[in-house]
Design brief:
The protein is an alpha/beta fold. It is built from 5 helices and 5 strands. Helix content is about 40%, strand content about 15%. Strands 2-1-3-4-5 form a 5-stranded parallel sheet, sandwiched between helices. Helix 3 packs parallel to helix 4.
Amino acid sequence: MTSYGDEAAVREILTRTGGTWAVVGLSTNTARAAYGVARVLQEYGKRIVPVHPKAETVLGEQGYASLAEVPFPVDVVDVFVNSALAGEVADQAVAAGARAVWFQLGVVDEAAYGRTRAAGLAMVMDRCPAIEIPRLQA
């Protein structure tokens, strides 16, 4: 299996990149992985920003229909959309001035990875921050 984002990149994003995480694909559906991961991010002190076409308030945070509509800086864009849509989200993250992009488990787009890294952003792909954060605490 190819690794997209070495341990140093994972550590950098989780500990030094910033505390505001836009979670693209996050809705009020508690059965979805995005909801559980967003809750873990909050437990570890991250501010989550739900980004979903429905713009729902999730876990006490105001939602927005797109990254472009978020009226404040976002440090990390955590992507919970399928791989076919993920590249566009990565490009939107670059345009929005994010510092890093995180593609969740199963989300892979090598071309988007290359574009995002070339734009100067840190990026991790096919990993889960809710799995990685506790490992950093150990």
